[in-house]
Design goal:
Blueprint: H1 2-12, E1 16-18, E2 27-33, H2 40-51, E3 56-60, H3 69-74, E4 77-80, H4 88-97, E5 102-106, H5 121-129, E6 133-139, E7 144-147, H6 157-169, H7 177-183
Parallel strand pairs: 1-7, 2-5, 2-6, 3-4, 3-5
Antiparallel strand pairs: 6-7
Protein name: 1-acyl-sn-glycerol-3-phosphate acyltransferase
InterPro entries: Plipid/glycerol_acylTrfase (IPR002123)
Domain Phospholipid/glycerol acyltransferase: 29-141
Length: 188
C-alpha cells in the first residue's frame, strides 16, 4: 500500500525513472548520488517504489532514535554507526553472504555537504561480496532518476572510481568536488 502512495506522489511531483535493476539480479549495492538535501529521501522512496525491488537503505544511526526512528525502520532503513571504526564493510559483506536476495542503498558521499572524495565502503562491500554496484543519479533539473546497469568492481580501483565519476558527471545537479578530483586522478 505504501509503495502505491509513493509512486503516486513521485509521479505527481513530475519525477520519472530511466533504467532499471535487472529482474534476475539477486544482490547489489545501490549507490545514490547526490546526497544534497532532505528531499533526497522522499525522491528515493518514490524511485524505489517505481523500480519495484525491495531495497533497504543505510542511514546514520541518529535518524533511528526517537521520536522518528520507528518511521525510518518501517521505511526499510538500517542504522549505521559512523562514529567509530567498527568493521562495517566486513559486517555488511557477511549480511550479503547470509542472504539469498538483498539490495542495499546508500549515499557514498556520506553527507549532504560538498565532499572531496567518496566514502569507499560501498565499493569494498561490492568487492567483498562479489556483487555489482548499481549507480543511481538523482537529476533534479530534469526530475529524473537514472539507474545504470550493474557495474562490477575490478582489480583497478583507480579506473573503477574514474568510471563512477564519469557516470555521475552526466547527472545534472551533481556539482560535487569529488567528481572533478576523481576525473583528474586525485584522491585515489
Amino acid at each position: 500500500m505504501l509503495n502505491k502512495i509513493f509512486i503516486i506522489l513521485f509521479k505527481l511531483a513530475g519525477w520519472k525513472v530511466e533504467g532499471h535493476i535487472p529482474v534476475t539480479l539477486k544482490k547489489s549495492i545501490v549507490a545514490v548520488v547526490p546526497h544534497a538535501s532532505w528531499v533526497d529521501f522522499p525522491v528515493g522512496l518514490g524511485a524505489r517504489a517505481v523500480i519495484g525491488k525491495k531495497i533497504v537503505y543505510l542511514g546514520k544511526a541518529e535518524l533511528f532514535k526517537p521520536p522518528f526512528g520507528w518511521l525510518f525502520r518501517t521505511l526499510g532503513g538500517m542504522p549505521v554507526d559512523r562514529s567509530k571504526n567498527n568493521n562495517l564493510v566486513d559486517a555488511v559483506v557477511q549480511v550479503f553472504n547470509n542472504n539469498e536476495t538483498l539490495h542495499v542503498a546508500l549515499a557514498p558521499e556520506g553527507t549532504r555537504k560538498n565532499v572531496e572524495k567518496l566514502k569507499t565502503g560501498f565499493y569494498y562491500v561490492a568487492k567483498g561480496a562479489n556483487i555489482p554496484i548499481i549507480l543511481v543519479g538523482f537529476d533534479y533539473p530534469r526530475k529524473t532518476v537514472f539507474v545504470r546497469e550493474p557495474f562490477y568492481p575490478t582489480s583497478n580501483v583507480e579506473a573503477d572510481f574514474k568510471e563512477i565519476a564519469t557516470y555521475f558527471s552526466q547527472i545534472q545537479g551533481v556539482q560535487k568536488s569529488w567528481i572533478k578530483n576523481y576525473l583528474d586522478g586525485k584522491n585515489l
